[in-house]
Model the fold of this input.
Amino acid sequence: MRRSYSDWRSTQKERLRSFFAVPHSKPLLIFGNQKSGTSAIAGLIGAASGLRVQIDFWGAREPYMTPLLRGRTRIARFVRRNAWPFSAPIVKEPNLTFVGTQLLDHFGCERGLFIVRDPFQNIRSILNRLDIPGNLNSLASELKGLPNSTWQSIIEGSDLKIESDHYIGVQAERWNRACEVYLKDPARYVLVRYEDFNSNKRDKIIELTREFGLPSDQPFEAKLNHQFQPKGERSVDIAAFFGDENSARIRQICGPLASKFGYEL
Done:
């Protein structure tokens, strides 16, 4: 899948800015699977603290991500090439979740922020974003409508070498891989369940700013319900959305790890 001219141009503009930029000494790095609520939490922390937030960036998309995830691109070189995004005090990029601990080590950060979300709702939100139904047996024509090669690698699981013969299985395994980053070294992360944040956004954001030693003196209440990313259909019936077979796939694959985060599938 070829990149569009606008994507290429945006990447080049970011690269040019990075040539003259200096990465932040110790940014707040925010991780979590795609569509787990990282944008909303990052945006509100930025609003409360008055600090610049980098929400996603072109240099963390394909064709740059797979070499990084597979160790062909060193972390130090990746940071240098993306100095502009990393010059922000707050950086949120789900694609970097799978090298989260290495990035924390590179910047000398004691801890990062990790967001987790119920796997059914998380996978549903990813599929909503791409207009893909959740109850199919396989994907064919749907792959042709993906917006770019980054989403293609996520849906196919090629970036993480996920071996599954079903698209729901790929996303369930991806959810597990993201959670394993946290579970391997929980002391390196402050964990937030998206559901807990969503039930009391204001207090959770103030709590997080204090946790990371950030100011929280800016009014941010007007942005509590702002859509930092395209909204999915949270009100849909999950059982109907996935169907019996695909629901069973998610329960089987994600169930053991989900229980560690208090999700009973």
Observations:
- Residues 5-221+239-260 form a domain with the Rossmann fold fold (CATH 3.40.50).
- The chain has a mean pLDDT of 95.
